[in-house]
């Protein structure tokens, strides 16, 4: 659902070789489960009251359940049995799948379970399976992803690029940094760059301004409200943000920031309905100083320098 067409698809664990296996006669998809022995996919459409089954390559699609009075809001396959959570009747139902293509007979497994959302079957897994990713993470710096025939590939986190076959480095090319009220995203100028994301997105509640200091790879973000009201620094490649300016008084909010990357100073405009201040501090927030102050009056604007 959402912005994409409704479909069931598969892909390798690194996102390559995507293949759509079901796209027609679909309403709103909810949950999915796999029968890895017989290589079948089971998926639910709760609003339509349907559970469907199809092979891994999109063949032999048929209904397991087709009843508008049901609401299959979760699904799990175990051995030869299919479980589903029915939020219309507050029950978990189960049926044996015999593989003849005919709809099975479901019976109640558990009743009177309110607010059903999903269901999973927990089962032991062999611990003796050997795979390169289980040995020193496959020598991968970030993520080791299994492939067929006991092969693997290394992947890098958002904001990083591959450096050789196993290592990763920060994205070090030019990119466009875009801020909305609640998110900051970086897009490479080279549109052919894989995945098209140059930095890990940053979330916020009321972002007003951003700037960047390239040498330290640090993004400075001002917000007008919330727990990060003021200015916060985010070093690309590091997880913990650093508060830079927090003590904005009363209803004053920081509306604009500018990094002096030559002298490592941070300038910002701090204002409310009556005052507008231009201030400066070091990039770590030390030695904050108010350069000038503007007061709004009925007739004109008074200016004061310090």
TrEMBL record:
Gene3D superfamilies: TolB, C-terminal domain (2.120.10.30)
Domain of life: Eukaryota
SMART domains documented for this protein: LY
GO molecular function, one term: Wnt receptor activity
InterPro entries given in the database record: 6-blade_b-propeller_TolB-like, Cueball_EGF_LRP_Nidogen, LDLR_classB_rpt
GO terms, biological process: canonical Wnt signaling pathway
Cellular component GO terms held in the UniProt record: plasma membrane
Protein name from the UniProt record: Low-density lipoprotein receptor-related protein (inferred by orthology to a C. elegans protein)
Organism: Nippostrongylus brasiliensis (Rat hookworm)
Lineage, highest ranks first: Eukaryota, Metazoa, Ecdysozoa, Nematoda, Chromadorea
């Amino acid at each position: 659902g959402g912005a994409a067409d409704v479909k069931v698809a598969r892909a390798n664990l690194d996102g390559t070789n995507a293949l759509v296996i079901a796209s027609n006669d679909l309403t709103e998809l909810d949950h999915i489960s796999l029968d890895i022995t017989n290589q079948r996919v089971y998926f639910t459409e709760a609003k339509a009251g349907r559970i469907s089954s199809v092979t891994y390559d999109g063949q032999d699609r048929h209904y397991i359940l087709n009843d508008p009075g049901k609401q299959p809001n979760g699904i799990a396959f175990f051995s030869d049995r299919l479980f589903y959570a029915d939020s219309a009747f507050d029950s978990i139902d189960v049926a044996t799948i015999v593989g003849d293509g005919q709809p099975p007979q479901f019976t109640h497994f558990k009743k009177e379970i309110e607010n059903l959302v999903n269901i999973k079957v927990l089962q032991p897994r062999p611990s003796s399976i050997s795979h390169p990713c289980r040995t020193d993470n496959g020598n991968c710096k970030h993520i080791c992803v299994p492939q067929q025939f006991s092969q693997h590939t290394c992947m890098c986190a958002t904001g990083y690029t591959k450096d050789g076959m196993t290592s990763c480095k920060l994205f070090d090319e030019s990119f466009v940094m875009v801020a909305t009220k609640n998110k900051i995203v970086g897009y490479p100028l080279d549109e052919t760059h894989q995945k098209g994301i140059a930095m890990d997105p940053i979330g916020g509640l009321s972002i007003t301004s951003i700037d960047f200091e390239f040498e330290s790879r640090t993004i400075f973000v001002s917000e007008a409200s919330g727990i990060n009201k003021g200015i916060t620094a985010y070093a690309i490649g590091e997880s913990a943000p650093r508060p830079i300016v927090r003590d904005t008084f009363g209803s004053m909010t920081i509306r604009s920031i500018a990094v002096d990357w030559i002298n490592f100073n941070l300038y910002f405009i701090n204002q409310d309905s009556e005052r507008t201040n231009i201030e400066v501090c070091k990039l770590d927030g030390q030695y904050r100083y108010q350069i000038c102050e503007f007061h709004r009056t009925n007739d004109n604007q008074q200016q004061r320098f310090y």
